[in-house]
């Protein structure tokens, strides 16, 4: 499926008036820096200006392209597929108005036309696709920075919200696909594809329901054997299942069956969007971590909250060795607590954090570190961020910088060096729990 996520040419079908879906997709492709050939197509012809470029609108497609993105009224899509079938390899049908509104016959016709020409199909009723490392943004959703997360979403709107939230959370993406009604390619196909994609480190999947449970379980096992798979399942309740059926025409089915399948395959199920991104951030940084955690903080309260959460999640507070304790006592002020959690107190500076991290990291009883910083107004958060970045430590380090504006500069510095921030002690603890089971 490289022709979808790493295409060399693309044709976009639809209206190119400003604000129209096809126009917005075209704008995203051009502004995103796509280096391949871009062909806008509309029977009216003309030109379109987008991102400082003037593109000729073709009245019909008259050359081969890797992928076609189609945003025209649903009733015309099967006929178009027949017309362009010999010229394309893959098609992304944005258009809605198919099985999700009871129009199964039109969707069947679309699939038949695609199969006739050997075309693989994403959609219909979807929000499009991103191949971020191919600088291909074939969707009207917000563009994202390159990274290791491939997001597969049955819902276009959820996918768009997740991309925007991912930007806010400092997530880097390898790809995004909204597959809508899954008339041809579905979640199982994308799981298998991203499992083998070298730019993808972790896969996140939003699903409401699947049609072929056996195929899905096989694909999920294939993917989880190669990289972490995080799943957010909607339609767990009776009401949610009914909503899912009317949304994408999917069968949500018994949640207990899904949950058992996720566990059996070794996938990580999360309960909400926030958790999905926290898990993704953790796995972007590390493949796994042990259960014995050392907490280093400059504030006692958050250290206690982290300890409570870690132990509730089945992790252990590491028992520091005597040599480690002696080294810590040799340079820490006497009012600091060297028990785990290690409380460096409010005036902890660059040197105190860096030396503590390095000493604790060398302790053979410690598998991972959770570093908490609640900076006082007289200490810039970027100083503590620099200490974390520059400390010599070869074990997983999860960071919790708290207090909004006060830590903004420190968080930016961390993220610039690939260190993700978790805004609360509990979220940081949960990140370590996922790594310990991943």
UniProtKB/TrEMBL annotation:
SUPFAM superfamilies linked: NAD(P)-binding Rossmann-fold domains, Succinyl-CoA synthetase domains
Catalyses which reaction(s): acetate + ATP + CoA = acetyl-CoA + ADP + phosphate
EC annotation from Swiss-Prot or TrEMBL: 6.2.1.13
InterPro entries: Acyl-CoA_Synth/Transferase, CoA-bd, Ligase_CoA_dom, NAD(P)-bd_dom_sf, Succ_CoA_lig_flav_dom, Succinyl-CoA_synth-like
A GO MF label: acetate-CoA ligase (ADP-forming) activity
Pfam family, one: CoA_binding_2
Keyword flag ATP-binding: yes
CoA-binding domain: residues covered: 4-98
Class of this enzyme: ligase
Position of the signal peptide: none
Keywords: ATP-binding, Ligase, Nucleotide-binding
The keyword Ligase belongs to this UniProt entry's keyword annotation: yes
Alphabetical list of PANTHER family matching this protein: ACETATE--COA LIGASE [ADP-FORMING]
Name of the protein in its database record: acetate--CoA ligase (ADP-forming)
Native organism: Thermococcus celericrescens
Lineage of source species: Archaea, Methanobacteriati, Methanobacteriota, Thermococci, Thermococcales
